[in-house]
Amino acid sequence: MLCWRKFYFNLLQLTIKILVSSTIIPSEPIIDLCLDMNRTMLYLLPYKSTADLLTFRNCCLAKNLPDPLDYNEINGTILPRYICIDYDPFIYSDYKSLRQESIKIFYKYWELHQQNSLIDIQIIPVSILLNRSPDYINRKKKLYLKLLNNFKKFFTIILFRRDSFVFFFNAISLRNIVNAHNMDNNIIQKLIRIARIHFFRQRIATVGPIPCNTKDLFNKILLSETIKKAINDESRSKNISYKKAQQYAVALIKEIAANFTYSAVHLSDHVLGWIWNRLYQGINVHNIEYVRELAQKGHEIVYVPCHRSHMDYLLLSYVIYHQGLIPPHIAAGINLNFWPIGPIFRRLGAFFIRRIFKKNKLYSAIFREYLNKLFSQGYSIEYFMEGGRSRTGLLLEPKTGILAITIQTILRNRQRPVTLVPVYIGYEHIIEVETYTKERSGVIKKKENIMQIFKGLSKLRNLGQSYVNFGQPIIINNWLTKNVPEWRQSIDLINVQRPRWLTSAVNKIANIVMVNINKSAAANAINLCSTVLLASRPHIITYNHLLEQLECYLQLLSNVPYSRNTTRPNQTAEELLQHALQMGQFVLNKNNIGENIILPREKDIILTYYKNNIHHMLVLPSLVASIMMHCYSIAYAQLILQVQLLYPMLKKELFLHYELNQLPHVLNTIIIELCRQKLLFKKGRNLLINPERIYRLQLLAAGVRETLQRYAIIISLINDNPSISRNELEKIGLIIAQRLSLLYGVHVSEFFDKSLFIKLMITLRSEGYISSTGNAYPELIINLYNILLVMVNVRDIYQNI
Fold this sequence. Notes:
By secondary structure, the chain is of the alpha/beta class. It has 4 domains: 205 residues, no CATH class; 305 residues, Glycerol-3-phosphate (1)-acyltransferase (3-Layer(aba) Sandwich), CATH 3.40.1130; 91 residues, Arc Repressor Mutant, subunit A (Orthogonal Bundle), CATH 1.10.10; 178 residues, no CATH class. Helices cover 53% and strands 13% of the residues. It is built from 33 helices and 22 strands. Helix 15 packs across helix 16. The longest helix has 21 residues. The chain is globular, with a radius of gyration of 30 Å.
């Protein structure tokens, strides 16, 4: 670069460097995009803007990428290192000259590749956004997004200097394009058109659609034929005038609709950033590339996270916003619609729904139409399929109502594919966990109000680490095409009747969502330490034994990962334990004998919550260890058979992803790992425990102890009385579990959870152990009974029966 030009740009860049702080996505372009630093790079930018270029240059220099203001020298030919496709359309009415200049530069690179087959330049598309707010379109002008002019851009830099994003995209090999399209004379123009579409989609994914005026949205909903018919039906059924029914419809729309504003999002970003920095030691985000790829392809995204805490909505929106994506509109319970939380949440994109609205046809129709409008306008959506926050730490059975509405919306409006993105949200400390414990013990849940929020805020302290892991997406259109071939024929009937396949498809998709949430779970210091301490009796363990068991779990999670999307801590066992002690959940007791870790009695049921967050990740190793602990020696084939008999109940309860035919392979990898850790030995076709490390195996086996006890209660009752009714079985089973909890100090929340007993009954029926009339098949039940008889102290259960 010429000296005078370099001096000029350096002077301007100093100003930009002081004013603008950009988020670079991905954070490490060279590593994440696998860029070859030995190959020549050509940056492709959407618009010619000095502010954008200098912002981009700062990012390149910070990440050790080639300076875009320097030139590429190839075989004696000097060419610019960056190309801009267009001028700012708001400033320039005619930008054909820049396009022609860009095409000329492209052709020069093209000719160099034709002349020398060894040349291979990396084209790196780069998008720079100095402001996340979309421009409001003048109705009289063509509908396209406009960048701010120089005057507005100056104030944008001043006001939104911390809201700048620079996106690096995967490199494109110009050599591959030349080899594939060498004879195509129009290939350069085609490349520029494709790049323009690419940048347009990226801007839409980051900035979002143009916000719709609230009044216009209301009018669109009221003028739709579906709502007109629903208002007429409401008028006739309640014998009121059409006008009164319409006023009622307007009131329902106001009750539901969000009032999304970018100014509120921008302000909340600063507030939440301040809060997270004081509450959390770090926010860990994984697999966000799934979402970026979908947004770039133009998918309508529906985020479906697990629900642990009221923090979930705020944390997920904050993470999505800081990953350069538009925050979603969130389906919130009507219980949160109170002043001042309700109005604030509405401006952040929350729309409020009632828990049950099947009997209110007008409400149901309006909600469906509102959701359809959000999809058609291009907004992403977020809802919690569990319906409410989990009180046990396990995933709840999904509520499928809003998912059914989503699929019906797809049938009505197929402009863009809709994709469900499961999200696992995990914490090392949840502020409501003590409240959950009280509710499990019978305390009536208090209604949310402003005083309750202030009380919660007063208890806020160091909450440790938080985790947001995005799971494997489910493209609904593709899933329906594969599993319900006739779904396209139902499009014309969707407003007339409910397709027969809908209920079955919704239930299957809901189950896949929950399975994929668990497939993206995150293990952390608290839930791992909780798993070890709860396995020890009476919840006391030496410092060294706890370290050894943590190391056992870490090796299992590394060498036999539950899925490729799950994450485990990168720290050592020692570092994890020190971090857990700093969180104040455990007590370190030092005496003459040594150091012991003690779990206070009042915290055992609280830490069961955290243990349950990752219970599914360790349940199969725990089951193998439990069988070995009670058999000492067993044939490999017999162990596989026993696990296969118990697995359907675990699969249904914990949303496990392995199919039954995959179990032999999965169990084989687990057994190999346990043998590698010298907890087991192989002797011919038999497996034996290692007496020298039996304590580790015992702790591992204890992870599934309470689960097997619950199964033993139900199976014992059925074995004694095959004709026992379902209601009586659930009632007696729950009473026995609670008595065992009190008598033997088994303080686990699952023993008080009726839904788990109901789910077990459903599984037994679906697996053929119980007939459609409710009678059990004794010859099948006895197999389960005999297995559980070995692993559980059934005598105690019999005494309580």
